Amino acid sequence: MVEQLAQKVLEVHGEAWTIKELFVLPNEYIYWSIQIVMYPFMTGLVAGAFVLSSLYHVFGVEKLKEIARFSLVFSFALLPVAMMPLLMHLQQPFRGINVMMTPHFTSAIAAFGIVFSTYGCIVATELWLVYRKHFVLTAQALNAQQNRSAVDNFRLLIFTCLTLGAWDISHEAIEKDHHACKIMAGIGIPVACFLHGYAGFIFGSVKANALWMTPLMPVIFICSAVVSGVALCILCYVIVQEFRKFMAKRKMARWAKDVDAPTVEELEGAKHMEVMLASNYLLYFMIAAITLEILDLIFRGYTQVKSWDILREVIMERDFTKIFILQYGLGNLVPFLMMALPGRTVRRTTIATVLVLFGVFMMRYNVVIGGQAFSLSFAGFMDYHLPIIPHSIETYKEGLLGALTVITTPFVLFFVINKFLPAFLKEDSSH
Amino acid sequence: MERREFLKSCIMVIAGASVPLSALTLIDPRKVLAANPDIQWAFLVDTNKCVGCGFCVMACKTENDIPLDANVTRTWVERYVYTKDDRRYVDSPKGALNGYTESRIDLGKGEFKEIDPKNVGKAFFVPKLCNHCTTPPCTQVCPVGATYKTDDGVVLVDRKWCIGCGYCIMACPYAARFFHPLLHVADKCTFCYHRITKGLDSACVNACPFGARRMGNIHNINDPITQLIMNERVGVLKDEFGTKPQAFYIGLAQEVR
C-alpha cells in the first residue's frame, strides 16, 4: 500500500496517459492533453459566435437579427469558459494570475490577459448597448409595481444597477446606442480574430514542434473558429427555438401566455429563414478553413523536409482514422455535402452543424495531440490514452470528466445570463 | 528681450545642440558588463569517452533532489546501435539511471530486442543535458518570466513563480525540461549552479569516471575546455533551430538528434 502510494506520488505529469513506443527521449510526455484541445476549441466558439453577431451589427445583415442577438449573449456566456481549460491544465493554478501581474511579452501566452480582458470589455459594452432599453423598461415596470415580492425587489436592484444611471430611452438616445454598438462590433471583429489568431500563434510559433510550426496556423485557427462558432450558434438557436415552440404550443412559459406572444408558425418561419442564411455563411467559412488545412498538408508532403518522414507516418498511418475519416470525412465532407446539396432543410442543416462541431473538435485534437504523437528524436512515437475514470485530481482535470465540465459550463452560464439579457426579445425593447 | 526673440533663440539653441548631443549615447553599465562578462559557462561532452555507466545520471538526481524512481531526469545517456544490415536502434531506459547493464534494446511498450553482437556495426553512447542555449526558446515563451538566463550563461527556473503551463517544455527542441514530480513546476539542468558558483564541479562532471563530461569558462581563453572547443572538431545538437547551444560535443554523429 505504502509502495503504491509512493509510486502514485512519483507519477510524472503526463505519465498516466502517455504510452511510449520505440525511442522517445526520457523527459518527453504528452504534456498538453485534452484541456489544451478544449482551449482553442472554446476560444474558437467565442470568436465565431461573436463574428456571427457582428454580421448583423456591422454589416447590417438584417435577416440575421435574431440569431445575432442570441450569438452575442452566447458568446458572453462562453467567454469565461475559454479561460477554464487553461486554468485546469496549469500545474500551479493559483499562480495563474501571475500572467496578468508579470506578463513576459516575448511569450505568446502573456498577451492572453490583455487580449482576453479587452475582448471581454468589448462584448460587455456591446451587450449593454443592445440591452440598455430593456434594462430601463424592466426597471421602470418593476418600479411602478405595487407590493413587490422579495424576488422582484432583487430584480429591481439588479436592473437599476445594470442601467448604470442612463435612463434616457428617447429615440435619439437609442439611435446613439445603435451607432455606438456598430462601432464596438466593428472593433470587436479584429479583436475576436486576434484572440483566436494568437491561440494559433501559440502553437504555430513552437519551432521545436515539426507539426505545429507553420505561419498558416493562426489563419487556419481563425477560419475554423468562425466555422465552429457559427455552427454552435445555429445548433443552439434551433434547439432553443424548438423548445420555445414546445412552450408556445402548450402555453407553459410566462411569455407564452401573453396576448401578442409569437405563434408556433411565426417561430417556425423565423427559424427557417435565419438558419438557412447563417448556414450559407457557415459554408463560406468552411471552404476557407478546409482550403488552408489541405494547403498546409500538401505543402508539407511536397517539400518533404527532414520531419516529413515521421509526420507522414503519423498523419497517413497512425492517425489516419482520426484525421482523414473522422476530421475531414465525417467532420467536413459529409456536413458540407449535407448543406451544399439542393433541397436542404432545417433538420438536415442541424445535423450538419453537429458534425461540423465534431470536425472542428477533431481538428484541434489532431493538431494538439497529433503534434505530440512523435518524439523530438524523430525515432519514436507517443500514444495518447484519455483518462476516462479519474483516480486522482490530475486524471480528473486532464481527463474526460474535466473536458465535459468545460463543455457544460457555458450552457449553465447562458441559462443564468439569459435571465437578465434575454436572447429572445420582442422587437421594441432592444435593437 | 521680446517674447518672439526669446523663442527664436531657444529654438536655435535646441537645434544647434541636438546635432552633437545625438552622437552621445547613454551607457547602461549593466549592459556593458553583460556583453563582456568574465564568465560564460560551457559544457563539453567527449562522446568517445562515454561508456554508459550512468553515474552522471545517478549523481545528478541525488544532488538535485529529483526522485530516483521518477521517469524524468535532468541529464541522460542515449545508446546508439547500428547493425551491419543498416538498421539503427536507440534507447535510453530510465535515462540510463542504472547504466547499460543489459545488451538488449528497449523498444518501449515493454518490448525488447536482442541484437546479435556479430551483427553490430558500430555502437556508442551520447550523454545529454540542457544546452543552456545562447538564444533559448524556453525563456522566450515563458508567459510570466519565471525562467531566465543568468549573466554567466546559465538558464534557470524560478520555482516560486512558475505557473506550470508547460509552454517551455514544449518549446525546448532537446526535451531537456519536465515537470518536477513533487514540486509541480518546470525543472531542468542548472549546470549545478549552486556548485559552480562556489568553484565546485557540477555533480555529473564530478561523477564521470572517464572525463567524458567537462565544464569550463568559454570567455577565458586559457581555460582547457575553451582550448579544446577551439582546437578540436566539435559539434552542437540541432543547430537548425538557431538556439546556439552552449553544450559542445566531440565525436558527434549526424544521426544524433
Written account of the structure:
The complex is a heterodimer of chains A (431) and B (257). Chain A is mostly helical and 431 residues long. Chain A has a domain at 34-205 and 393-431. In chain A, 69% of the residues lie in helices and 2% in strands. Chain A has 14 helices and two strands; from the N terminus they run H-E-H-H-H-H-H-H-H-H-H-H-H-E-H-H. In chain A, helix 2 (34-57) packs across helix 8 (217-250). The radius of gyration of chain A is 24 Å and the shape is globular. Chain B has a domain at 41-133 and 187-250: Alpha-Beta Plaits (2-Layer Sandwich), CATH 3.30.70.20. Chain B is built from eight helices and 13 strands. Chain B has 257 residues and is an alpha+beta fold. Chain B has a four-stranded mixed sheet with strand order 11-1-13-12, covered by helices on one side. Chain B has a three-stranded antiparallel sheet with strand order 3-2-6, with no helix packed on it. In chain B, strands 4-5 form a two-stranded antiparallel ribbon. The N and C termini of chain B lie far apart (77 Å). Chain B has helices at residues 3-22, 29-35, 55-63, 137-141, 167-171, 193-196, 203-207, 224-231, and strands at 41-46, 76-83, 88-91, 105-108, 111-113, 120-128, 147-149, 155-157, 178-179, 186-187, 213-217, 234-235, 247-250. Chain B is 25% helix and 21% strand. The interface between A and B is large, with 54 and 52 residues.
| Total helical segments of chain B | 8
Radius of gyration of CA atoms of chain B, rounded to a whole number: 25 Å
Describe the main β-sheet of chain B briefly: 4 strands, mixed
Distance between the termini of chain B: 77 Å
Q: Sheet bearing the most strands of chain A, described? A: 2 strands, antiparallel
The tally of beta strands of chain B, per DSSP, is 13
Distance between the termini of chain A: 65 Å
Mean pLDDT of chain B: 91
Whole-number mean pLDDT of chain A = 86
* CATH-derived architecture of the domain at 41-133 and 187-250 in chain B: 2-Layer Sandwich
> What is the CATH first-level class name of the domain at 41-133 and 187-250 in chain B?
Alpha Beta
Q: Classify the fold: give the CATH topology of the domain at 41-133 and 187-250 in chain B.
A: Alpha-Beta Plaits
- Tally of helical runs of chain A: 14
Low-confidence stretches of chain B: none
Q: Give Rg of chain A in angstroms.
A: 24 Å
Strands in their spatial order, largest beta sheet of chain B = 11-1-13-12
How is the largest sheet of chain A built, in terms of strand order?
Answer: 1-2
Helix content of chain A: 55-70%
Residues in helices of chain B, as a percent range? 10-25%
